[in-house]
Design brief:
Phosphate binds at residues 86, 124-126. The protein is of the alpha+beta class and 237 residues long. It is built from six helices and nine strands. It is 32% helix and 29% strand. The longest helix is centred in the C-terminal third of the chain and has 26 residues, at 211-236.
Length: 237
């Protein structure tokens, strides 16, 4: 039995509430069990300097955690004066993942910045950030299209992410913190709505894993991504 009481292939309850920020071009609050992430997308009229004259747009991300998002207080990174390596790695992952679902030429020479702020952490914050970040991005692009600023939809795929792992010898879908902290193998799967892989992060935390075990985790990820994409569609109406 999982610490959460869920079946091995059960996701946590998912909810996505859109339009939660007044000024952002796109925003949502995503809840995956006890994990809550506020996602916003901001449109900037020009692309980064390295893309000047290319005709290509850019999607990037920033990620952060409130000090009491976890069971003990973490100092604000602004107070420390630098971002942790973990923060930098996660926000690069979010940016890479969201760009994989975007036709950057159709976006034109502009940038969309997706901010992901973790209000409460109970495992899977990077996955929730990617899934909710895509919804915020979708809403921002909708505004560009409604205004006639872009004429061809730059978003070509849904993008979502889910964690899977091996806990007490069993493959689990959508790990919460209690499961993640004790898992022998931990993985994050970023995929499109058509079940194409964007990125897989897997590591043997306490024990090595076999090819067959990796396959079983990928099967669970397929199931989880389908549920997350359904939640994205429901949130967008």
């Amino acid at each position: 039995m999982r610490p959460s009481g869920r079946n091995l292939s059960d996701m946590r309850p998912i909810s996505i509430e859109t339009g939660v920020m007044r000024h952002a071009e796109g925003s949502c609050l995503i809840r995956c069990g006890g994990t809550e992430v506020l996602c916003s997308a901001s449109i900037e009229d020009k692309a980064p300097s390295f893309l000047k004259g290319s005709g290509l747009g850019w999607v990037t991300a920033e990620y952060g955690m409130l000090p009491r998002a976890t069971n003990t207080r973490n100092r604000r990174e602004a107070a420390v004066g630098k971002q942790s390596g973990r923060t930098q790695e996660i926000q690069r992952l979010i940016g890479r993942s969201l760009r994989a679902g975007v036709d950057r030429r159709a976006l034109g020479e502009r940038q969309i910045v997706v901010d992901c702020d973790v209000l409460q952490a109970d495992g899977g914050t990077r996955c929730a950030s990617i899934t909710g970040g895509w919804v915020a991005l979708r809403l921002a692009v909708n505004k560009l299209m409604a205004a006639g600023i872009v004429t061809s939809d730059p978003i070509v795929e849904h993008v979502a992410a889910v964690s899977c792992g091996i806990y007490a010898g069993q493959p689990l879908l959508d790990l919460d913190y209690a499961e993640d902290s004790e898992a022998g193998t931990d993985g994050n799967f970023v995929m499109t709505g058509s079940a194409r892989l964007i990125e897989v992060q897997m590591s043997a935390e306490g024990a090595t894993f076999s090819r067959a075990e990796m396959g079983s985790l990928m099967d669970l990820a397929d199931r989880g991504i389908a549920e997350l994409v359904a939640a994205q569609k429901a949130a967008l109406g």
